[in-house]
Amino acid sequence: MNSQDRKSIHGIWKGRWTFILAAAGSAVGLGNIWKFPYMAGEYGGGAFVLIYLICILLIGVPIMVAEILIGRRGRNSPANSMAYLAKEANTHPHWKFLGVMGAVAGLLILSFYSVAAGWAFAYIFEGFNGTSAEYYNLEFNNFLKDELKLISFHSIFILATVFIVARGVIKGLEVWLNRLMPLLFLIVILLAIYATQTGAFLEGVNYLFSADFSKIKPSVILAALGQAFFTLSLGMGAIMAYGAYMPAGQKIGSTALSVAFLDTLVAILAGIAIFPIVFANNLEAAAGPGLVFVTLPWAFVNMPLGLIFGKLFFVLLSIAALSSAISLLEPGVAWVVESLKTKRYIAAGALGLIAWTLGILSALSFNLLSDFTPIGDRNFFDSMDFLSNQILLPLGGIFIAIFVGWVMKRENVLEELEMNEGWVLKVWYFLLKFLSPVLVGVVFVAAVFFGVT
Ligand code: TRP
Fold first, then answer.
1. Radius of gyration of the chain, Cα coordinates, nearest whole angstrom
2. Could you give the CA distance from residue 372 to residue 379 in angstroms, rounded to a whole number?
């Protein structure tokens, strides 16, 4: 049976665009608007961007195709889709673990992601009335020391995520993503246009696109591959879960390309919006994680209409984070609903509570628990980040590639992709069977055993 005949109990999206909006919503997040610009800044601009683009195309897109394919053919939560497809391929049912691990990774990521999203949300209400760069530095540090504030914004963010997921695939996800995503694209474009007016536009663009090849080091390649994975939401079943709600007859290959294109476009537009503003104010591009919370507010303050555009920027960041957070919760919630036959709002509430509780430890890792270092010398927030992004996601990605590349029957794969043999398929299979597992494996080993990140 293929996806023409099977239906997800959670519903199938009606809109032709909903899957693309949803997957792009998952993909476009803090990773694009907060992390991508500061990583590009730290790792030398164009050289990093170039490698990042190559990783998206050669590794990200093939694995995304594999995830969508598993989800749509399985028509269930990632865990149960994997179980179904393992049976179809006459192989061991333990492949289900891939989906279970993904659901767990989703909760772990959600827990600290929500804390960082809370910063973005809090900054919408920031007064922006400081008169020096140091002021904003101090302000951000004070904010990180304020447990109550951090936990409050984290709580609001988790509540919003739970609310949307609890409403269901059609009334929650489809309705809200159709509202939020157009707004998100509009704001990114507005901000990029605003940046063209600041004077340092060319300098900013030049910084992002002129590749200095002497800057390409192993650590840059590792960082770019890790970021490509994270930004496309791969390796934990988020895209797989959404695949289950994709209408039959929609082409998986071109859809994955569109999602990757939108995701990259927003990251680049965010860079185009941020760097000219940074340069116009003679600020440091390699400011690290503080780039959007310290450098940017100060830059906005110095510009005409800066207050409005500054707030708009943090509205954008909050929307992007919310549409990503939904996809972190959905795989687990769908699985609990299927397995325990509970009501969706109970599953969403219970899993949200777990993520919220873990998130509190992350929020406290900047203040009360700053000496608590579960993994290496990382605080709790960084440990969760490390565990999920450096360990669980790469492992998930490798196994997804192996499952679709080596375990599934080729005829079933072709049927689900609605494709015939040909060079496109050959290239995709090659990337999935050999290049992705090997490269992602190298990154995994390098990060975990040699600490290169
Ligand atoms: N892609 C999102 C970002 O760029 C984060 C995200 C959402 C994610 N869902 C995910 C990352 C699943 C990995 C796996 O911010």
1. 21
2. 6
Pick from 106, 103, 83, 61: nearest CA to 403: 83
Give the pLDDT score at 150. 96
- How confident is the model at residue 27, as a pLDDT? 97
CA dist., res. 40 & res. 48, Å (int):
6
**Residues 6 or more apart whose Cβ sits within 8 Å of residue 432:** 62, 63, 65, 66, 401, 404, 405
Please tell me the predicted confidence (pLDDT) of residue 2. 54
Mean pLDDT of the region 337-358: 97
- Alpha helices (H) along 78-217: 78-88, 96-124, 133-145, 147-166, 175-196, 201-209
CB 275 within 8 A of CB 368: no
Q: Among 56, 227, 327, say which to mutate for ligand 1: greatest number of ligand atoms within 8 Å of CB.
A: 327
Q: Which helix (H) or strand (E) holds 376?
A: none
For ligand 1, say whether the CB of 23 is within 6 Å of any of its atoms: no
Residue of minimum CA distance from atom 9 in ligand 1: 233
Residues with Cβ within 8 Å of residue 440, at least 6 apart in sequence:
59, 225, 229, 394, 397, 398, 401
> Ligand 1 atom 8: the closest Cα is on which residue?
233
Ligand 1 mutation pick, 68, 113, 164, 184, max ligand atoms within 8 A of CB: 113
Contact assessment for residue 57 and residue 224, using Cβ atoms and an 8 Å cutoff: no
* Structure-model confidence comparison of residues 219 and 323, the more confident one: 323
Mean pLDDT of the residues in the chain: 91
Q: Where do we find the tokens 């990337």?
A: 431
Q: What is the mean pLDDT of residues 286-309?
A: 83
Cβ(239) to ligand 1 under 6 A? no
Q: For residues 178 and 326, is the Cβ–Cβ distance under 8 A?
A: no
d(CA 175, CA 300): 33
Cα-Cα end-to-end distance for the chain = 43
Which amino acid is present at 326?
I
Q: Rounded to an integer, what distance in angstroms lies between the CA atom of residue 2 and that of residue 418? A: 11
Cα angle, residue 241 at apex, residues 239 and 244 outer, rounded to 5°: 110
Q: H helices of 169-251, where?
A: 175-196, 201-209, 218-231, 238-243
pLDDT reported for residue 123: 94
Alpha carbon distance 184, 26 (integer Å): 12
**Residue 131 pLDDT:** 81
| Gap between the Cα atoms of 361 and 381, Å rounded | 8
Cβ within 8 Å of residue 146, ≥6 positions away: 367
